[in-house]
Amino acid sequence: MSDVLSTDIQFIKGVGPKLAQVLSKKGISTLEDALYFLPRTYEDRRRITKCRDLKPNQNATVLVKVASQREIRLGRKARLEVVAGDETGRVMLSWFHAYPTLKEDFTEGNTLVCFGEVKFFRGILQINHPEYELIRELEKGKPKASLNFGRVVPVYSETEGLHQKTIRRMMGEVVKLSLGSLDDSLPEPMRTRLDLPTLRTSFKEVHFPEECPKENEVSRFLKRIIFEEFFILQLGLGLKKHHQKTDKAPILKSSNSKLTQFLKSLPFDLTQDQSLALKDIEKDLERNFAMSRLVQGDVGSGKTVVALASAVIAGGNGYQTALMAPTELLAQQHFRTAEKLLPETGLVPLVLTHSNASDPDVQDSIRTGRAQLVIGTHALFQKGVKFHKLGLVIVDEQHRFGVEQRNALVQKGEGAHLLMMTATPIPRTLAFTLYGDLDLTLIRQKPANRIPVFTSVLRDRERPKLYAKIRERLQRGEQAYIIYPLIEASEKLELKSATEMYEKLRKEIFPNHSVALLHGKMKADEKDRILLEFKNKQYDILVATTVIEVGIDVPNSTLIAIEHPERLGLSQLHQLRGRVGRGSLKSECILVADAFVTERLKIMERSEDGFEIAEEDLKLRGPGEFLGTRQSGLPGFRVGHILRDSHLLNLAREEALNLLEKDPNLNASENKKICLLVESRWKDKLVRLKGG
Q1: What separation, in Å, do the N-terminal and C-terminal C-alpha atoms of the chain show?
Q2: Taking the CB of residue 280, how many other CB atoms lie within 10 A of it?
Q3: Using CA atoms, how far apart are residues 134 and 105, in angstroms rounded to an integer?
Q4: Domain 453-607: what homologous superfamily?
C-alpha cells in the first residue's frame, strides 16, 4: 500500500483531530479508508427546475432569489421561513431548527441554488431543510458547478456531527490526493479480458460520477472495485490452501484398517451422503500432505459416525486420533458412542477432560499409545498432554475453537491430518467466502430412522394451548425445553426473561413438576451438572436461554417451546429445534410469536432442511449472522456484498484458482503487484495455516 494512502485522515485538508474522531465512528482513520467509504446513493442536480414546474413529492434543484424571511419562535426553538422565487413563481424554504448564522444567508436579493423534496402544504409549494449554496456570479445564466450542485452528487451515510457537505468536501480532497497513488494491481491481460476499467477511473467515477447511476445499480466502476476485493480474498485463501499442501502428513490407508468390519458392525446403514463424506476423507488420508476438510452436517445427520470411521482408519495405520469437543458433556457423549460402536475394531477410546487430565494413568495411556482415540475438551491441547503418534485431529463444532487452539492440538503430532465438523449449515455462497482454504463436504440427508420434528407457530394469546401440550407430554413421562432469548427481564425490550419465567413456571404453571434453569452466566460445571441431571430425568422441564443451542442428546425430551422467536435468526431456531427428535419418540417444536406471524417463521414450519433454512436466513438477515468469530480470520469486505455480488465472488474465485494454477506462489513479474496487495491485506493471516 502506498504511503500516501496510509496518511492519517486528520491531516487531510479541512479534517483535523475533532472531525477525525467523528470519522473514526465510521471506521475511517486513513486516506485509504476514506477512499473505500463509498456513496450509498446519488442525486442528479444538473438540471435546474423553474418554480412553475415544481411537482409535489419530487426532488428538484431550483435557482431562486430571496424575497423575504421571517422567524417563528416556538418556545426556545425557532423556525425560519424564507420566500424565494424566479420569474415563473415562488417557493417557501423552511428550517425547523434555525440557528442565528443561518439567517445571514437569506438577505433579500441574495441568489441561491437549492435542492430538496418539494411538498405542497396549505396551498404553498415548499422545501423543508433544503441543501443550498449562495451564488455570487452566474455563467450563461447558470451557477458554476461545485461539489454539491450542477453535477451528479454523491450521498454518503451520515453520523452525528458529520454532514453531506463536510463529507463531500473531504472526499474531493481524498480523491485528488489518492488518484496518483492508485496503481492497478490486477494483471493487465485479465483486466482487458474481463473488460474492467482502471482502479483510478473506478474510484473517481464512484465518488463523483459523470452520469447518474440508476437506483440500486452496481455500475461497472463499482464492479471493478468489488471484483478486486473478492479477488484478493480468494487469492489469499488459495495461497493458504497451497501452503497447506506443503505440510507433510502420514499416509493412512483404509485397506490397512478394520474399516469394513466397523461399517458392517453398525446397527444401521450409512446414508449416501455419509458414504460420500467418508470417501472424501479416505482420499485425503491417503495423500502425503495434511488433510484440511470441513464436514458440514445438519443437526442429526450422523457426522459422529463419519468421524469414528476416520479414527478407525488412523488406528489401523498405527496412529492416534484426538477428537476435540467444546464441552465436557459433549465429549462424554462422543465417548459413550465410541464405546458402543467400536468394539469390533479393537480401537481403544479414552475420555480426557479437566477433571481427569492430571491422572497419571490417563496421561500414560496417551503417551504410550494404548489409547488410540482420545476424546476430550480444551484439555487436549494443554502442554502436559503428550501423544505417542498423533495422526488425525477431529474438531467438533469447530467454530467454538480459535485458530490457535486448533493449531496447538495439530502441532502435537509430527504432521497430523485435520478434520473439522460443524452442525451449522453454511450457504454455498458464504462457504466460498469463509472456507475457501478448506475442502468442504456436505451431509444433507438424515438417517432413515430419524423422525421429523413437527413445527408450529402459536400466538402469545394461545399460551394455554402450549401449556396443555407440555402437560400432555409430561404425563407420558417425556420432558420439555422452554427457551427464552434473555437471561434477565429488559424493560426496554419487554421480553419475557428466563429467570423471571422460571419462577412463574415453577410456582404457578407447573407446581407439580420439577423445573430447572440454565443460562450462559452460570459456571461451566454448573451448566454441565444441570444438563446431565435433565438427561437423567431428574427434571421434567428445562427453562434455558439459547446456551443449549449446541448440547447433548436427551432422547426423552420431545417438546421445545421457543419464546420470542422473532428475536432469533432462522439458523439459530433450527439449531435449537435440533435439541429434540434425538430418539424414537415423535417430537415437536413450538414457536411462540408475540403478536404476528412473520413469513420467516413460516419457513420454519415448512422446512427441516438446515441448508435451505440457512439460505433463507442469509437472504433475510445478511451475512453478519454467519460470519461471527470466523470473520476475524479474514480480511473484511469494505465494498462487496456477498449476496448481491455473488456472481462477482464466483468469478473472482474462478480467476484466482486459474492464476494460482499457473503461478502457485505469485512469483511471475506480472503478478508482483497483486502479490504485494494480497500480502498487505492478509498480513499475518497467511502464516496461520491450519483451519484459519
Answers
A1: 24
A2: 17
A3: 7
A4: P-loop containing nucleotide triphosphate hydrolases (3.40.50.300)
Burial of 74 (0-12, 13-18, 19+ CB in 10 A): exposed
Does the pLDDT at position 171 exceed 90?
yes
Q: What is the pLDDT of residues 497-545, one digit of tens each?
A: 888 888 889 899 999 999 999 887 888 788 888 988 999 999 999 998 8
pLDDT tens for 338-385 read 999 999 898 999 999 888 888 899 999 999 999 999 999 988 988 889
Pick from 40, 62, 79: nearest CA to 132: 62
Cβ atoms < 10 Å from Cβ of 145? 12
477, with CB counted inside 10 A (0-12, 13-18, 19+), is: exposed
Phi, psi of 234 (to 5 degrees): -70, -35
Domain boundaries, the chain: 9-42+157-217, 46-150, 254-443, 453-607
Contact present, 227 and 196 (Cβ < 8 Å): yes
Q: Which residue has the cell 479437566?
A: 354
- Please indicate whether residue 110 or residue 689 has the higher confidence score (pLDDT): 110
DSSP calls for 547-598: GGGS----TTEEEEEEESGGGS-HHHHHHHHTTS--SSS-EEEEEEESS---
Neighbours of 434 (CB within 10 A): 23
Query: Could you identify the residue written with the cell 421480553?
Result: 495
CATH architecture assignment, domain 46-150? Beta Barrel (2.40)
Extract long-range pairs of 666-669: CB within 8 Å, 24+ residues apart.
Answer: 666/235, 666/239
Please determine, looking at this structure, whether the domain spanning 254-443 carries the CATH number 3.40.50.300.
yes
Distance CA 259, CA 665 (A): 38
* 576 CB-near residues (< 8 Å, 6+ apart): 483, 546, 548, 549, 560, 562, 568, 589
Q: How many Å apart are CA 106 and CA 101, to the nearest integer?
A: 10
| CA-CA-CA-CA torsion sign (216, 625, 157, 128) | positive
Between CA 45 and CA 152 the distance in angstroms is: 6
pLDDT of residue 691: 37
Task: In whole angstroms, give the CA distance from residue 360 to residue 385.
Answer: 11
Are 247 and 413 contacting, i.e. CB atoms less than 8 angstroms apart?
Answer: no
Give residue for cell 423553474.
50
Count the neighbouring beta carbons within 10 Å of the beta carbon of residue 503: 12
Instruction: Tell me if 46-150 shares its fold with 254-443.
Output: no
Question: 164-178 vs 199-207: helix axis angle to the nearest 10?
Answer: 160
Cα–Cα distance list, 570 to 43, 555, 620, 626 (Å): 37, 23, 9, 11
Q: Which residue matches cell numbers 460470519? A: 627
pLDDT digits (tens, 9 = 90+) for 590-646: 999 875 657 778 889 888 888 888 888 777 766 554 444 333 345 557 888 877 888
Would you say residue 405 has pLDDT above 90? no
**Whether the Cβ atoms of residue 640 and residue 230 lie closer than 8 Å to each other:** yes
